[in-house]
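Good morning,

Attaching, inline, the backbone tokens for the sequence recovery test we're adding to the shared suite. The designed sequence is right after.
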């Protein structure tokens, strides 16, 4: 065998091995371990990075933030967030393409619309922005940034190994699972959060790799950080089963708190955009102003600064009175609105835990005043309120419930917690939206409602299924020429374009027939001039001008909606909505065929089968 034949066989063998690697279960499991380790170290890196930045600004790296901050001079608390805001503003202005930090919402959008792909550079820059923000005292959570970095690592592993779409999405879930598990030292919560929010199903083929990644992240966290939960919670007891109506009512209150909290964050974003736009304040200066406002709040109430785990922990241990719980609930909501509105980095997970704990603790104290013999410690209500508010905000009731169970290691509270969580998520989804992230996506023009199959249509675009063969007529053609063209055409519908190929209208046989009848009627009535005028009309004169159309870059979900609204079997396709140059047609049958393939693809991926047509 000569060298040429040997090289050929090696290339064939390597090609087959690569194809097998792209689709095999073994490759997914190996990839999940790599992603789990990478995301775990990413979570540890962000956590330690926040402490390092915190030491630069405040002089101490301790996660017990507000008790140490009380010992500092007031001007340090005021100026440190503003100084951090200057660094963040410059990073956002010069390094981020859309000039806005990304968190968990970007991961949901990436998995729904871009097959889980996130650029490595964007992920790393966002991680830097987030850790500087939180280290400087911005009032937000670290879990969202950690999850974003985990998904970025998963995306990069998928890109390097050339994995297909199905495996890429599974690895994205692995990155999210590992990051979540490492953040809370809670592997079960990491697993079900990834399955519940990212994949949207609990198929067995995805379960094993997600578990591998979550366990890897948890082990790394316990090796490098320690084997202890995020909060130290005393053991609480439910006094009597007569408390369960109170847990139902707490679910209602938690839903209201969650709705007000989410509304406040979005209102803060809109208000900052409006005010800074009117005053022409540049993007880089907004975090500086926001930092001053946050610092001003923190001078008197440092509990609202940073991630806020220490204050949440104290609420769970029943360390705050009613006045303090209510004040911290209001001020934390305001501080988070300022933080995210002024374009600091950070997530929404920790703030939801904080707000829920304060609301639940206040509810428990009030319940104890009214029914002193039937109410448990308000620390228990703080714990249940924390779970209920967070579940409503995240739209992840199962994950939140598991997080609480893993933090408390007490399954006796299961019934009370599940009652409040169920009531809160039901009310919130009914009156406000499924989650903070779904609302956030809709505000950005991305409607992810409609199930995974619908999202698959949103991930495909018109140019992928359109037909570039179509009948066209120049707008200046005479009626006689149009009539001859229709006699020989394969289709009865024509697209009328100008000399540069831009859309003018749509011409079908009924429009031509009506124009010819006008000529005949004018001649029958002896009106020769009117007949000549009618005969001199062009294709543009008789074509329908008000016609729907779609653009190349638009997704198939939008195109299907346009087809259904117009009632037409097909629509013209233009290169973009400004030039309106016609490049093809999109038929409803082709879109429905793509939709059917999306359904089959989603079902096959959930079962772990080979995807049809791939």
């Amino acid at each position: 065998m000569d060298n040429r034949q040997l090289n050929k066989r090696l290339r064939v063998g390597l090609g087959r091995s690569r194809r097998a690697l792209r689709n095999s279960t073994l490759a997914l499991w190996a990839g999940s371990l790599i992603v789990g380790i990478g995301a775990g170290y990413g979570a540890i890196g962000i956590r330690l990075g926040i402490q390092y930045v915190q030491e630069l600004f405040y002089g101490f790296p301790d996660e017990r933030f507000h008790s140490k901050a009380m010992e500092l001079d007031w001007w340090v608390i005021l100026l440190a967030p503003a100084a951090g805001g200057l660094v963040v503003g410059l990073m956002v202005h010069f390094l981020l393409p859309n000039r806005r930090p990304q968190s968990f919402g970007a991961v949901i959008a990436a998995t729904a619309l871009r097959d889980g792909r996130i650029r490595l550079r964007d992920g790393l820059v966002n991680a830097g922005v987030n850790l500087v923000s939180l280290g400087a005292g911005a009032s937000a959570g670290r879990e969202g940034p950690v999850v974003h970095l985990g998904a970025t690592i998963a995306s990069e592993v998928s890109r390097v190994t050339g994995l297909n779409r199905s495996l890429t999405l599974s690895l994205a879930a692995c990155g999210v699972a590992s990051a979540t598990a490492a953040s809370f030292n809670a592997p079960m919560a990491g697993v079900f959060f990834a399955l519940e929010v990212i994949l949207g199903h609990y198929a067995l083929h995805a379960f094993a790799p997600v578990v591998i990644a979550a366990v890897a992240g948890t082990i790394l966290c316990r090796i490098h950080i320690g084997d202890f939960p995020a909060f130290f919670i005393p053991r609480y007891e439910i006094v009597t089963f007569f408390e369960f109506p109170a847990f139902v009512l707490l679910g209602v209150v938690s839903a209201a708190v969650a709705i007000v909290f989410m509304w406040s964050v979005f209102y803060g974003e809109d208000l900052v955009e409006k005010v800074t736009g009117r005053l022409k304040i540049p993007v880089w200066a907004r975090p500086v102003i926001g930092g001053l406002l946050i610092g001003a709040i923190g001078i008197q109430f440092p509990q609202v600064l940073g991630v806020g785990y220490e204050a949440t922990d104290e609420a769970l241990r029943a360390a705050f009175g009613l006045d303090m719980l209510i004040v911290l609930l209001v001020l934390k909501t305001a501080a988070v609105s300022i933080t995210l509105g002024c374009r600091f980095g950070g997530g929404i997970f920790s703030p939801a835990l904080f707000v829920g704990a304060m609301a639940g603790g206040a509810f428990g104290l009030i319940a104890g005043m009214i029914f002193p013999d039937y109410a448990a410690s308000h620390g228990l209500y703080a714990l249940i309120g924390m779970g209920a508010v967070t579940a409503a905000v995240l739209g992840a009731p199962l994950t939140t419930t598991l997080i609480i169970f893993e933090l408390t290691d007490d399954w006796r509270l299961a019934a009370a917690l599940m009652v409040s969580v169920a009531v809160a998520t039901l009310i919130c989804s009914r009156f406000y939206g499924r989650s903070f992230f779904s609302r956030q996506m809709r505000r950005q023009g991305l409607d992810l409602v409609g199930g995974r199959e619908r999202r698959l249509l949103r991930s495909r675009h018109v140019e992928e299924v359109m037909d570039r063969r179509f009948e066209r007529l120049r707008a200046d053609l005479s009626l006689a020429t149009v009539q001859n063209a229709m006699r020989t055409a394969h289709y009865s519908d024509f697209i009328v374009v100008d000399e540069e190929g831009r859309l003018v209208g749509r011409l079908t046989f009924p429009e031509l027939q009506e124009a010819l009848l006008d000529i005949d009627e004018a001649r029958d009535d002896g009106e020769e001039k009117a007949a000549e005028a009618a005969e001199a009309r062009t294709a543009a004169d008789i074509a329908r001008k008000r016609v729907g159309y779609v653009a190349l870059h638009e997704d198939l979900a939008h195109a299907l909606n346009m087809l259904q609204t117009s009632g037409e079997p097909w629509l013209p396709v233009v290169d973009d909505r400004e030039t309106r140059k016609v490049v093809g047609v999109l038929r409803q049958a082709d879109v429905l065929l793509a939709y059917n393939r999306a359904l089959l693809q989603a079902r096959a991926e959930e079962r772990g089968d080979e995807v049809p047509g791939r």
